[in-house]
Specification:
The complex is a heterodimer of chains A (660) and B (279). Chain A is of the alpha/beta class and 660 residues long. In chain A, 40% of the residues lie in helices and 21% in strands. In chain A, strand 21 and strand 22 form a beta hairpin. Chain B has two domains: 164 residues, P-loop containing nucleotide triphosphate hydrolases (Rossmann fold, 3-Layer(aba) Sandwich), CATH 3.40.50; 77 residues, no CATH class. Classes of the chains: A alpha/beta (660), B alpha/beta (279).
């Protein structure tokens, strides 16, 4: 019972809001670090006691300029200690902080500012202040703009501009004048109050403000921290956008629950260096980051000397075989253990150090599917990388993988305290302590997302596998059925294809049809490189894509995916029967992808209707197509090609051994 | 804790003191009737102009007009045959480079002159050399006064790194950096010397538009926040007209124009030198 330790000094109920927890930490671990920030090349530490003082000064300053209970405070900037403190300061006054993405353009900000009726905003620097001043033209309610970094702000004379330094100075005057004010404000709060409002873009149009209460955040954060055994001795690098729910959980809620230290990088460009200097013990990154790191390691190794390269590849083979087993505590032969130990000394240890992962006890990734190769690379190095599944509406944690049950293709069993139900259409619903209060000023959306019994629709389709782990397969609205009634999850298949470096994009078809077929885009740099090494001359993308050698290469990938799908009884029917390699790369300029590189399925189905018909016409082995393309300078042109259609081998369902 | 609170209040006080806008003071450098020749080649002929405290002064002109020679006269690399230089009230025939540096004149070069094999940090530290007081032996010891001095200098250098936003390349050897960043590092080295007069020889040559915009912002910020007087040579007319307070125009070693940007733009001699007689 951690409460018993606290109640020794603080009789009464356990603190249930962020400001109360802060006061608690200042009392019992006042000298321990709460926040570090690298400034002028040196890590500056602020203790919990200092953090509490800073928050008090900001809160009192905000009260001085008229911030009242229920007011919303916009916070825009990179991860800076004073911006984190501002969140807590607003909460202390019973206000609602609204962190916003720092790279949003002024128009995007204006929508949120108007929707949340924001009167007070804290900006990191001149760049953000400029945007806010711009926003103020359309949102005149925005009366007060505060800024953290005074650089370049000397000649700004607009009304309502104030530096955080000046605000804190005014706050301190208030503290002198009315010493009990802050504590009385904090005493008025309760765990059921809204602690933060986070705007999610959602997949449908306008952003919605998700309101999360203190209890939502703190209970969820505590459950997850207990699950992973986090303590005050843990360290985290706070480098993800403050507007994202994950940063709120990892850098605020979990830090406040356990009392660990958060570290703010010097600038967004120095994150890799800072990561290495801090050596966090608890780490989160989206799959893309792990992918990029792996790529850069591989490229650097290709440039290394022959001995080093041999050493690396030798020990990585060993690591792949025994590393994950050692991490999961399975039995490994003594010889393998010694071999791995030697690798630890020569390769894995130094590599982990270079990556900044030497001390990582618990690492998470989430957001999209991670390639099994990438996932197992990190686990084989001895880094305890796990997956979780989460949403803003549920305070992140919906599913998380326990220490010894980590698989690349699932997101784990339900998180502590969370119940999960699969709807008839395959959609995942959950209920738990983290479920959000409501969308701000949007009862219709709230009603359509959250049932009266507290179940939340995720919009994702998934199912539980035999181990009781949830497998997310696609967005629920994209999941269809084959004519024989089997589930068809295009993204699940496409992701499996895209995990091959030679495949850049894939589009699978099958909804309402008898079998699955697919379009493939090759990765021109990977396949181009492969072609060069085999002395295969080619003129460009279209030429390379049409080569029989390339078709053979891609067929291999497709058949591997089929073998993989066959092993999964729910997905065995989704094996790809026929495929073709597109003559052009799918491009956002041509409307085929969104700007975030997601496939626009309906558009592609329309545009390439003839190709799809040919795929399903067993008599055809090729199809002629002309496509209009837009060049970057705005001109358009035609690409024509005669595309080959090939069949791939399919496997009987649920084969026992995995064909490779 | 109380110390931290005091710091707040103090910084607030500073912020108030800083609110006054930038102001241009008296003449700090004046060049009178400068003539410079290399054998029979007349690089500069009877040139006079002055630089006021806190201003951005541009020197422009076609290739071979004598712009770089002028800069080299100011910081003492070249010694003019005629004329005199008055810097901070002291009159002299010619400057000496090391003396100029000690008196607060720092510069950058047209073709970057950094130590390519050294890190950005070490390159900036070399900018502090005129401010170092302890000898080689004291510094070699690694503790004591030498160490304390190094820490103080390092702090100044870190401020420059922060100012120029080059934290991410602090430990990178300069030779591995792209050209635009090298230019920024060179500016950093000049700033590390805490100059009162900064000479920039084509700070934006060979840069793309975005890099130029960044560099312009840094130059304006240096002038504005550090109160540094700046003399710069630049080819990009848009840039020159935007950021400088006064412009002097040279052509074939002679001064053909001097004044605020708008006057210079309207000056027929300048138009002729730049666009040719036909216009």
């Amino acid at each position: 019972m951690p409460e018993s330790g606290l109640s020794r000094q603080a009789p009464g109920p356990a603190p249930d809001t962020f400001p109360r927890l802060l006061a608690e930490h200042a009392r019992i671990r006042g000298e321990r670090p709460a926040v570090r920030e690298k400034e002028f090349g040196i890590w500056q530490t602020y203790t919990w006691a200092e953090a509490a003082e800073q928050v008090r000064a900001i809160a009192c300053g905000l009260a001085e300029i008229g911030f009242k209970r229920g007011d919303r405070l916009a916070i825009i900037g990179d991860n800076r200690p004073r911006l984190y403190w501002s969140i807590c300061a607003a909460q202390a006054l019973g206000g609602i902080p609204v962190p916003m993405y720092q790279d949003a353009v002024a128009q995007e900000m204006a929508f949120v500012m108007a929707d949340a009726e924001i009167r007070f905003a804290i900006a990191e620097d001149q760049e953000q202040v400029d945007k806010l001043l711009d926003v103020r033209n359309t949102v005149p309610a925005l009366a007060h703009i505060l800024y953290d970094d005074p650089r370049g702000m000397r000649h700004y004379a607009q009304a309502g501009l104030l530096s955080l330094d000046a605000l804190q100075a005014r706050g301190l005057e208030r503290v002198m004048r009315e010493p009990g004010f802050y504590d009385a404000e904090v005493a008025q709060g309760s765990g059921a109050d809204v602690a933060i409002m986070l705007y999610t873009s959602g997949t449908t149009g306008t952003p919605k403000g998700v309101m999360l209460s203190h209890a939502n955040l703190l209970v969820t954060a505590k459950n997850a921290a207990d699950f992973d055994g986090l303590t005050e001795r843990d360290e985290i690098l706070s480098y993800l956008p403050m507007a994202w729910v994950g940063d709120n959980i990892f850098s605020c809620a979990q830090a406040y629950v356990t009392g660990f230290c958060i570290n703010c990088p010097e600038s967004s460009e120095t994150v890799m260096t800072d990561l290495r200097e801090i050596g966090p013990t608890y780490y989160f990154a989206p799959p893309r980051v792990f992918e990029n790191l792996l790529t850069s390691v591989m490229i650097r190794m290709e440039d290394a000397g022959a001995i080093k390269r041999r050493l690396f590849h030798h020990f990585m083979t060993v690591a792949k075989r025994v590393g994950p087993k050692i991490l999961d505590g399975e039995t490994v032969s003594l010889l393998d253990r010694l071999h791995y130990g030697l690798g630890q000394l020569l390769v894995y240890g130094p590599l982990r150090n270079v990556l900044g992962f030497s001390r990582v006890r618990v690492g998470y990734t989430a957001g999209e599917a991670i390639g099994p190769e990438i996932f197992s690379f990190y686990r084989s190095l001895g880094i305890n990388l796990k997956q979780l599944y989460g949403q803003t509406e549920g305070c992140v944690f919906i599913c998380m993988q326990p220490h010894n049950e980590v698989f690349a293709d699932t997101v784990g069993p339900p998180a502590p305290g969370v119940e999960i139900r699969i709807a008839d259409n395959g959609e995942v619903l959950y209920r738990g302590p983290g479920v959000f209060q409501a969308y701000f000023k949007n009862p219709e959306s709230t009603a359509s997302t959250k049932t009266p019994e507290g179940w939340v629709h995720t919009g994702d389709a998934g199912y539980f596998d035999a181990r009781g782990h949830l497998k997310i397969i696609d967005r629920a609205k994209d999941v269809g059925r084959l004519t024989d009634g089997n589930l068809f999850a295009p993204k699940y298949i496409e992701n499996k294809l895209k995990f091959f470096p030679n495949i850049k994009e894939a589009v699978a078809f099958g909804d309402g049809r008898g079998q699955v077929c697919a379009f493939i885009n090759i990765d021109i740099s990977a396949v181009g490189n492969w072609a060069e090494r085999r002395n295969l001359a080619y003129a460009g993308y279209t030429d390379l894509a049409g080569r029989p050698e390339v078709y053979a290469l891609i067929r291999d990938c497709v058949e591997q995916v089929n073998a993989d799908l066959a092993a999964d009884e729910k997905m065995a029917a989704c094996q790809i029967h026929r495929f073709l390699i597109l003559h052009k790369e799918l491009d956002a300029d041509d409307g085929e992808l969104t700007r975030t590189r997601k496939v626009r399925r309906r558009f592609i189905e329309e545009k390439y209707g003839t190709l799809i018909e040919a795929l399903y016409d067993e008599t055809k082995t090729s199809c002629y197509i002309e496509t209009q393309v837009k060049y970057e300078d705005g001109r358009s042109g035609l690409i024509a090609a005669d595309l080959r259609i090939e069949s791939a081998r399919v496997f009987p369902a649920a084969v026992t051994q995995r064909a490779a | 804790m109380t110390m931290k609170l005091n710091e707040f209040q103090q910084s607030v006080g500073d912020a108030v003191a800083e609110t006054a806008g930038r102001k241009i003071g008296d003449v700090i450098l004046s060049l009178e009737h400068i003539s410079l020749a290399f054998g029979g080649v007349k690089a500069l002929t009877d040139i006079s102009f002055d630089v006021r405290e806190g201003e951005i002064r541009a020197i422009i002109g076609p290739n071979g007009a004598g712009k770089s020679s002028m800069l080299n006269v100011i910081n003492g690399v070249y010694h003019p045959q005629q004329g005199r230089i008055v810097f901070h009230g002291t009159e002299r025939r010619a400057m000496e480079p090391h003396k100029a540096a000690r008196q607060g004149i720092a510069r950058t070069f047209q073709n970057i002159a950094l130590f390519k094999g050294m890190s950005v940090l070490d390159n900036l530290m070399t900018g502090r050399v005129t401010k170092m007081h302890h000898g080689l032996l004291t510094h070699l010891l690694g503790f004591g006064p030498g160490r304390r001095e190094e820490l103080a200098h390092r702090q100044k250098v870190e401020e420059v790194i922060d100012f120029l936003e080059i934290q991410h390349i602090r430990k990178t050897p300069v030779g591995r950096l792209p050209y635009g960043l090298q230019k920024r590092v060179e500016l950093g080295r000049a700033l590390a010397a805490e100059p009162s007069l900064l000479l920039l020889d084509e700070p934006m040559a060979g840069m793309n538009v975005e890099e130029k915009e960044d560099m312009c912002r840094f130059i304006l910020d240096v002038n504005d926040q550090m109160g540094t007087t700046i003399v710069l040579i630049e080819h990009d007319m848009g840039v020159v007209m935007d950021i400088s307070d006064r412009v002097v125009v040279l052509d074939y070693g002679k001064k053909i124009g001097d004044g605020v940007p708008d006057d210079v733009k309207a000056n027929p001699d300048v138009i002729k030198a730049y666009l040719g007689a036909g216009h």
